[in-house]
Amino acid sequence: MPTAATFDAEKPVSDDELTALALAADPDTAVAPGAVSIWAEVDAEPHLLPAWYMPRPRRRVSSRRQRIVIGVVVAAFLLIDAAGLCSTYGWVG
Questions:
Q1: What is the value of pTM for the model shown?
Q2: Fewer CB within 10 Å, N or C, the chain?
């Protein structure tokens, strides 16, 4: 099992090895005075999720026909609910 001193970035590390390293680490260890934030190394602005995981939504131009179909589907669900039915399980009780 690799330790912090013998860790090689080129060699892949298994999940079991990462788990063992995480469990063996001391949670009360003080951060070194010269430690650099990962955000300073990777990007100037920290993000909650990477762009490849959840990209920014783009405005999509839809045709008149698509808007009508979407409106009909939404209206149908509203009518089903207004009639006291559940769209998946039957009567609302």
A1: 0.34
A2: C
